[in-house]
Amino acid sequence: MLVPLVLSLLLLRAFGLELFRVDGVSMEPKIEGGSTLFVNRAAYGLQSPFTDRYLLQWGDPALDEIVVYREPANEILAVKRVAAPPAAPFEIVHEGIRFSDRLIPITTEVADELSERDALGHDEVFLVGDNLSESVDSRSYGPVEVTRIRGRVISFWGYGR
Predict the structure, then answer these.
(1) Residue 49: which of 92, 19, 83, 12 has the closest Cα?
(2) Where do the H-state alpha helices sit in the chain?
(3) What's this model's pTM, rounded to 2 decimal places?
(4) Residue 161 pLDDT greater than 50, yes or no
(5) Domain extent at residue 103
């Protein structure tokens, strides 16, 4: 009786729902450090529990969704907001990168990396923390592959709102 229950819980965590605890201030004031996030791991597809690959993908992150993902620079899990979804057109301007009505400051390195393009790839998103002065995000390391996204935040509690 215990084995099927444990197996069910492991499958639910691996493919469906997961809890994450926020350790940082990059999403303040919406989500404060110490908050617990309830994450839908199947929001965009069925992921392998052991890799950052989708076994089956049925959706893409949308503008302004909050997601948990693996940062490209250090592989830690982080939470950020989707500032631009896959295939979003953009323009590099003196002040940063412009996605339709949003102007986001970026580093010179990211501007150089994106200078030959006019849109994100179909498998990329631009992720930004709500607390710009305290967030390390796509402004510093560029677009993030959708496969790095662990899931969409569907609820949180503990602090903030």
Answers:
(1) 12
(2) 2-15, 108-114, 138-141
(3) 0.87
(4) no
(5) 2-157
**Cβ neighbour number for residue 140 with a 10 Å cutoff:** 14
For residue 55, with 0-12 CB atoms within 10 Å meaning exposed, 13-18 middle and 19 or more buried, which class applies? Answer: exposed
The CATH number linked to 95 is 2.10.109.10
Provide the CB-side half-sphere exposure for 158 (13 A, CA).
Answer: 16
Question: Tens digit of pLDDT for each residue in 88-138?
Answer: 999 999 999 999 989 999 999 999 999 999 999 999 999 999 999 999 999
Tokens of 131: 């607390």
Give me the number of domains the chain comprises. Answer: 1
Which amino acid belongs to residue 114?
A: L
DSSP letters of 83-121? Answer: EE-TT-B-EEETTEEEETTEEE---HHHHHHHTT-SB--
Q: Tell me the per-residue pLDDT of 109-120, one tens digit each, with 9 for 90 and over.
A: 999 999 999 999
